[in-house]
Each structure stands twice: as C-alpha cells, then as structure tokens.
Design a protein that fits this description.
The chain is mainly α and 236 residues long. The chain has 7 helices and no strands.
Length: 236
C-alpha cells in the first residue's frame, strides 16, 4: 500500500473502522441505559402502586384513630364538666373513666417506602411527590413520639390511679358494653360511685386534664396525617 501511495486511504479506512466500533459501543451503551431506565421506571411504577395500597390502609386506620381521639376528647371533657359541677355526675361517669385507660397506636404500612428507600428510587420521583412522601413519613414519626408519651402516661399514672381508687368501674352495671358483658354473670352487690369524693379528687382532675390535652394533641396529628396521605393519593 505504501509503495502504491495508498497510505492515506489506509488511514482513512482504519479511522473509519474505529469510528464504527465507537459508534457501536455508544449505541450499545445507550440501549443498555434505555433498558435500565425502563426497568427503574417499571420498578418505581410498581412500588408506587404498592405505596397507594399502603396509604389507603393507613387512611382507614387514621380515620378510626381520629374518631377515637374525638371520643376521648368528649369523655374527658364531660368528666371535667362534671367535676366543675357544670353538669351532674351520671351513670356514664364510670364508663368515661374506664375508656380513658385505652391505649392507641398508629401502625402504618411502610413496605413500599422501605423498598423505595433501599433501592434509592425516591430521588427519581417528581419533586412535589418526593417532598409530600418524605413529609408524610416524618409526620408519622412525630405522631408516634406523641403516642408514646400519651401511652406511657396511661401506663405509669392514669391506669394505676383508676385501678387503685375507682375499681367500681368494673361492674355489670357499666355503660361500657365490653365491661358490662364481661361482668354480666357477676352476682356480687354493686358498689356505687361516691359523688362527693369524686368531685373532691384533685389528683383525678389533673389526670383527666392530661388525658384531655393528650387526646387533643393526637387528634391534631391524626388529622394532619389524613390530609397528608390524601394529598399523596391525589398525586398518585
């Protein structure tokens, strides 16, 4: 080729071969990137479907918890009005005292969120959706911290005091159906609430006031979580 003065043609041929190889490699890489992107998008789509299911489960649970806090608010408010002598002590008093012993806890389904976090898919979401999801799960953490405070208060103070000083709430004449059913065959004579002692019980008054404020705080969290989850569901 050199003798025939075809060096330039050879070089052009060699460069052309290199260019073709490079183009082939680039095309292969692009196809691979497309395939990987397609896999990621499919994975995100699947996980968002699961997230939607998780949020619907959470939403139903939050509706129930929110109503429970409304009930607690009403129980404690009625008891405080009785202790202030604004309304009379009645047959529901012991029911309210008993109901305020119940502990509640939000148990969200975090399967989708955990999977998307582990697979690092959150950054691929639209900014608005990404922010809404992260804010929702951050709010859950704050709500659970408040639940822990409330339930610890019940366990360490309220429940102990009620069981020690007002065991008469556990009788067949209870207006709380669960207790009434449990004691329906109890033949022992009933013990009546001493209204005078109840109205003068300042320790109980303080405990009921605490239950009132804890219920209000939790209701606020549950309401905010309902709004946040509903907002995400609309985006999905």
């Amino acid at each position: 080729m050199i003798k025939e003065n075809r060096v330039s043609k050879y070089m052009l041929y060699a460069i052309g071969e290199i260019v073709l190889v490079v183009i082939g490699i680039l095309i292969a890489l692009q196809i691979n990137n497309w395939n990987e992107e397609k896999k990621i998008n499919k994975s995100i789509e699947d996980h968002l479907t699961i997230l939607k299911q998780n949020l619907n489960e959470d939403y139903a649970q939050l509706i129930d918890l929110n109503q429970k806090m409304i009930d607690n608010f009403n129980y404690s408010d009625s008891l405080m009005m009785q202790m202030k002598t604004l309304i009379p002590v009645d047959e529901n008093t012991t029911k309210y005292l008993g109901k305020l012993q119940l502990e509640y806890q939000f148990r969200p389904n975090t399967n989708a969120m955990e999977t998307m976090t582990q697979s690092n898919e959150i950054p691929f979401l639209k900014t608005e959706l990404q922010t809404a999801i992260l804010d929702y799960y951050a709010l859950i953490k704050s709500a659970q911290e408040r639940e822990q405070i409330s339930n610890t208060q019940i366990q360490s103070k309220y429940e102990i005091y009620i069981n020690s000083n007002y065991p008469l709430i556990f009788q067949r004449n209870s207006k709380w159906d669960f207790i009434k059913s449990y004691y329906k065959d109890d033949p022992r004579p009933l013990t009546l609430l001493n209204t005078e002692n109840f109205l003068a019980d300042k320790t109980l008054e303080a405990l009921i006031t605490s239950r009132y404020f804890q219920s209000v705080a939790l209701k606020t969290f549950y309401s905010d979580l309902l709004d946040a989850s509903n907002n995400i569901l609309k985006m999905l």
